[in-house]
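Throughout our pipeline, every protein is held as a single compact record rather than as scattered files. The record that follows is passed on verbatim for readers who wish to inspect the format:
___
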Amino acid sequence: MGERRYQRLLLIGLASVLLISLVPVIGTHLLGAAERPLSGSDHFGALCLIALHELLSPAHRVLHLLVAAGFVWAFAEMGLKAWRTRRVLGRLPARPLTAAELPLAARSGLDASEVLVIAGLPIPAFTAGSWFHPRVYLSAALLDGAESLSHDEVVAVLAHEAAHVRRRDPLRFVVLRLLARALFWVPALRAIAEDIADEAEIIADDAASAVTAPVTVASALVKLGAWKTAESPLAVVTFLRRDLLDRRVRRLVGEEYRPRGRLTGWAVVVASCVLTVSTLSGVVDVHDLPNAPGHPTSHRHCEHDGASAASHLFCRWGVSGPLLPGGGADCPHAHG
């Protein structure tokens, strides 16, 4: 139950960050607005919206550049990794399961066509291939040899990978990391994306535990933990991740273990500041500046030649009137 609550919080956090990050660009420009809601009123209480617009206009332009550059970089990196993965997988000496191995796949919930066995594979098992119809690649060493696993342990590994196949985790991970790299200026997003990827491993372990037993999954993890493996540069979802090994094994053998995410206090502070500025820049962008085409003449009361926007940010202190006054009748500069 604790894991489920934690997973829900991660999804809520991801959705919130994405919404706040992209609304200033998508809501203001791509969707458009028939009538700008802040036009016709230049103040919000004592705050001068024109001055705020002028102060945040550079930030809004920078936000456009960051979003555009981030998505170009993310798509280019994703395309390169997908091409490299396809090329490597195409060269692997893969073989289908033998008649004696078919029952192992059947017990795990995988179709025989979804499993390929690779001789000399340094990674115990991984899920990769087509994003919509991924396959499971299994090292031949798990089936035969000094490092082979028991039949139940092999089924546990396959059942774990079967969960990744059913959930289409390779595609989910690609999308998550694409967004994390595209919005690189919000560091908290990358931490949340990696935490969600961690939770996918936990969910797959639980699925494998339902097929065999939690202790069997833990036993397979401990045995494969002795393998000397490096992090794969390919777009794959691997069974063995050393940064999660301790957490996964302790959960499976029944020890209480509290999830610890990658999100740090510093990342939250940076994200809060960046998202506040970007959101405000998007909000005030729906307000026309005085020189905008078709701008009402009442806006001219806040044009101050030679005065900085910062000095004019609050210009209605002590002035009575509604929170959103219409025109410039109550502005202290209107009759100056």
Summary: The CA atoms of residues 44 and 58 lie 21 Å apart. Strands lie at 43-44, 47-48, 94-95, 115-118, 125-129, 134-139, 237-238.
